Amino acid sequence: xxxxxxxxxxxxxxxxxxxxxxxxxxxxxxxxxxxxxxxxxxxxxxxxxxxxxxxxxxxxxxxxxxxxxxxxxxxxxxxxxxxxxxxxxxxxxxxxxxxxxxxxxxxxxxxxxxxxxxxxxxxxxxxxxxxxxxxxxxxxxxxxxxxxxxxxxxxxxxxxxxxxxxxxxxxxxxxxxxxxxxxxxxxxxxxxxxxxxxxxxxxxxxxxxxxxxxxxxxxxxxxxxxxxxxxxxxxxxxxxxxxxxxxxxxxxxxxxxxxxxxxxxxxxxxxxxxxxxxxxxxxxxxxxxxxxxxxxxxxxxxxxxxxxxxxxxxxxxxxxxxxxxxxxxxxxxxxxxxxxxxxxxxxxxxxxxxxxxxxxx
Amino acid sequence: xxxxxxxxxxxxxxxxxxxxxxxxxxxxxxxxxxxxxxxxxxxxxxxxxxxxxxxxxxxxxxxxxxxxxxxxxxxxxxxxxxxxxxxxxxxxxxxxxxxxxxxxxxxxxxxxxxxxxxxxxxxxxxxxxxxxxxxxxxxxxxxxxxxxxxxxxxxxxxxxxxxxxxxxxxxxxxxxxxxxxxxxxxxxxxxxxxxxxxxxxxxxxxxxxxxxxxxxxxxxxxxxxxxxxxxxxxxxxxxxxxxxxxxxxxxxxxxxxxxxxxxxxxxxx
Amino acid sequence: xxxxxxxxxxxxxxxxxxxxxxxxxxxxxxxxxxxxxxxxxxxxxxxxxxxxxxxxxxxxxxxxxxxxxxxxxxxxxxxxxxxxxxxxxxxxxxxxxxxxxxxxxxxxxxxxxxxxxxxxxxxxxxxxxxxxxxxxxxxxxxxxxxxxxxxxxxxxxxxxxxxxxxxxxxxxxxxxxxxxxxxxxxxxxxxxxxxxxxxxxxxxxxxxxxxxxxxxxxxxxxxxxxxxxxxxxxxxxxxxxxxxxxxxxxxxxxxxxxxxxxxxxxxxxxxxxxxxxxxxxxxxxxxxxxxxxxxxxxxxxxxxxxxxxxxx
Lengths: 361, 269, 312
Known about the structure:
The complex is a heterotrimer.
Chain A: E1 4-13, E2 16-26, E3 31-35, H1 42-50, E4 57-62, E5 65-66, E6 77-80, H2 92-101, H3 107-120, H4 136-148, E7 154-158, H5 166-183, E8 186-191, H6 194-200, E9 203-208, E10 211-216, H7 218-223, H8 228-233, E11 240-248, E12 254-258, E13 261-264, H9 267-270, E14 276-281, E15 286-288, E16 294-303, E17 308-313, E18 319-324, E19 336-341, E20 348-352, E21 358-359
Parallel strand pairs in A: 3-8, 3-9, 6-7, 7-8
Antiparallel strand pairs in A: 1-2, 1-4, 4-5, 9-10, 11-12, 11-14, 12-13, 14-20, 15-19, 16-17, 16-19, 17-18, 20-21
Chain B: H1 2-28, H2 32-35, H3 50-56, H4 61-92, H5 98-107, H6 113-126, H7 133-137, H8 144-155, H9 159-167, H10 172-183, H11 185-201, H12 204-210, H13 219-226, H14 233-263
Chain C: H1 14-55, E1 58-59, E2 69-70, H2 76-81, H3 83-113, H4 121-129, H5 136-146, H6 154-157, H7 172-197, H8 201-209, H9 214-225, H10 227-242, H11 246-251, H12 253-257, H13 265-274, H14 279-305
Antiparallel strand pairs in C: 1-2
Helix pairs in contact in C: 3-7, 3-10, 5-7, 7-10, 8-9, 10-14, 13-14
């Protein structure tokens, strides 16, 4: 069994805290994505599992065994570095073989395993080349081959796709998912790219400034973000976040008053606390509609072909992006427009203004 | 645990490297009676500071330092100026035989001292510069290494800068002095430190260029004079060595980065 | 920025003449700027280099006062087969073999030890580089005292060679080698450290994760990737060893050098010139030394460059 567990893990570099009280359990065979912008602590967390950094507080366990004091080379993990870290003076074959040489394996067995890994990743013809003679995509596959050849308990991947061009990235994404699924090896995957996270992860752990914000399956993360950070991070364009306050509306109902209008709250959200809140509305839940509850002024209209982004500004200066289908009306910059919201109650997200935490279901 | 082992190894290394110097400093302060003491004392119980002043006066170290200073500064200034001029020409000007002349400058690095000093001595004598300041400094006023280093630095300056300056009416001299040289300051500092060190520590040339004991001995030759066989002289000679060594260590402390830069100019791609 | 001038109607345009005079001025400035350096090189490097060949052809009789006379190539063979020369050559080769490998190994070990993110590492690095500022004279005085049979460290360590180290025909040369190694250590350390910086940390981390222990990482990763630097250090230290003069001069002296098997070639050359007043012979030996160092450098470049691995 190769679960990976963080229990209250903190890592300090001098005075700054890179990882703060991280508690996270990754199941055996799961592909968990650590998502966040640079400096959020995701790479540090990965390196802590690898043993390349020492934990300041807390414990890390692999397969039920606490590994804090164990050397990287004895942890039975394999890592794919962002820059691949291929040994430039060794051929592809020897690069892949390298992890096996330390294990006292017989030569025939090593050669067989190298061949197997090479075939899996389509590197058969390149075994005698040196890394400098390979393309970026090929180097990436060598790094993967080197990782899988020894069948470790855990794969650690540090933004492996970021150095590839866009087209190759899409293809390789799918390849990695297929590979991981076939091998069923627990994988910890670090990236700042939400598209990668959404398409690849069984679950996603969003981090910001060393703190875990939320961990959930992609759909849940998208549909029910736990705080304003996660809400604004996922989605392209990101969720609109409007400051407002709870008020009373007609029919004894509750509304949320934002600059630009008053939005009635569905029954589920009525039990939420009163006071200052932040209303979250995804651009795809909005439509330009003169009868809608919100009013805003159009600043920019972006025609993207498959959709149109209408970027508006509410009276208090908040930005509101509406995603219009291509054939719908296109307002002009300067127009005052009405904006309607999808009647599905799940389209409304409410967050406490002070704590930024999600209110309601 | 690993860390303790690393510190242990490092400290052993440091002790081995420093032991000779420490031994020298301690012994320079010992009275003659304690010199032969076994085991050697780790700390001077009554430091004989006067050994230092003796080295300075009757050991003539003051005079030696002055000579070294004059020679070294002349060489450093000379090398900086000639290298800046030549490097500027190679980096910014177009002229025939540029490639050949540059290779020629580099070739001087391949011609070692033992081959040239014989004739240089004769040249010196015929110019009447034997046993003179000119004799000590002039053969070293230019260096292929300096030209190489500064040309490299000048080439880093974007060509646009020169063109913009030309448009603004800057002639080459002004561009050299106001733009190129200031921008190449790190390399100039590196060259300066390197030249200083090399010139100050020179041994063979000052020896043959002044012949035997001479009022124009540099510090290095002076140290040779101080090495006598009588036990009385030993602390004085050691004091002399310390006086010769310590200023350079201070130089190293201040200019460590520049020095490393110049020394590794050929090593790391 | 060339504007093709179409000679309509033939003859140079004023633009052409302006450009040509600008070019000439540029040329003139260039040569002016190069003049000081080229003059210095000409007089003090190239002229002596060429004259050296001429000097080889003249023999100076051992009787002082008599001028040198032309003997053509006849001086070369006797000089090169004299016991003086051959012994000196052997001594020099032994010296180089003593100095170079140890300098490189020690420099590398110190550089690896100091290539860590430990607190206070900067002080250690400072200490290890410090010998780079020592002159040969300083090193000689320091070690001369250390090796002194009466006041030095050796008696305390229980080592009592008889005759004392610097007057001992077996130990004189190794003693000078130790001095040279110590003096070169700072530079060796600096060069190796700079090289280590260029070995990406990630590669060593990847090797660590792949299961390689410290020793394996050193031999299979660090050393191969460091080979350009080691090669550079090898060339520099070899040239340096061949030109070591000061220690022998200060600590051993002309009288004893030959008897103690410490008369390295450069020392022999200088003394042939100064003591025996024979520039011809000195020039011949200098040429041999030059050819050896040049040959070794080229050989190292040819042979080892092939095996150098560049991390790109």
